[in-house]
What we know:
By secondary structure, the protein is of the alpha+beta class. It has helices at residues 28-38, 83-93, 171-180, 227-239, 310-314, and strands at residues 17-25, 41-45, 48-52, 61-65, 70-78, 109-112, 118-123, 160-168, 185-189, 193-197, 202-203, 207-211, 216-223, 245-250, 257-262, 268-273, 277-278.
Amino acid sequence: xxxxxxxxxxxxxxxxxxxxxxxxVPDLEAAxxxxxxxxxxxxxxxGGLELRAFGxxxxxxxxxxxxxxxxxxxxxxxxxPDLPTFAARLRALGVAPAAAPAGVGDEGLWFHDPAGTRLxxxxxxxxxxxxxxxxxxxxxYNADRACPYRDAxxxxxxxxxxxxxxxxxxxxxxxxxxxxxxxxxxxxxAGPVAFLHGVHGSEHxxxxxxxxxxxxxxxxxWAVTSIEQVGLGAAQMAEAGRARGWxxxxxxxxxxxxxxxxxxWGSYAEYSFDIDYIPRGHDWAGGHPDPxxxxxxxxxxxxxxxxxxxxxAAG
Length: 315
Ligand SMILES: [Fe+2]
């Protein structure tokens, strides 16, 4: 575990990573099948599931069983010396400590954001990338054909969690809380959608918010290493019975190429490639573009219910 922070970041007092998130769903086997088909390494743990990228130990998501799909909590990683700073900010705002969920250790700080999303800040190794992820271009010249036959095409396996998007009922209140308490920075604010990055070097967004009538989980985005993999991922999910989604396209804010696959509960898992990177110390010039001019550069029109909040509707 990394217990120290880089010297140039002393006093920054910001979380460095989206460590993991936790959902409950009504059918664990459906979740296992969905995320396995998506290309993640799914493990059993404590009566639930853990999602990892193949070849890595880091747990990016925990999925338990519950009566309906629900965001249980969001865990952020921070440098250990910064934990007292976060605790002091929470005390100053009068934010009460929260209990850790049943079966989850109570390390670090547990609390709720103003809308009621349960959060954890824990001392953890920085799991967000320290530089822009490398791309693998599959068409470098060689003497053979670049494209495999269909029956030899590779299975897509994301290399890690890029970001997640959560519903928030009050965008201004959420942005204020996550920037002032967790030390995240606003990357871009498009009104009903806003994006936040980490001060210790992170992709354009560790988390994003979408305006809704309540809280909830909209999507998680998993990094792949080429546009080819975004397309192959969409195809492998269609073959697994998960053709419904949105893509292939390119976002303006974040610049990433995307394909979203709808999960069995109406939320999404996104294959994401080539998202913008904001290095530590870089003063990102964010904007306030209107959504029509910044949602996506090209791609098919999104599904009409793309931002429907199934959790708020059920709640
Ligand atoms: Fe995304």
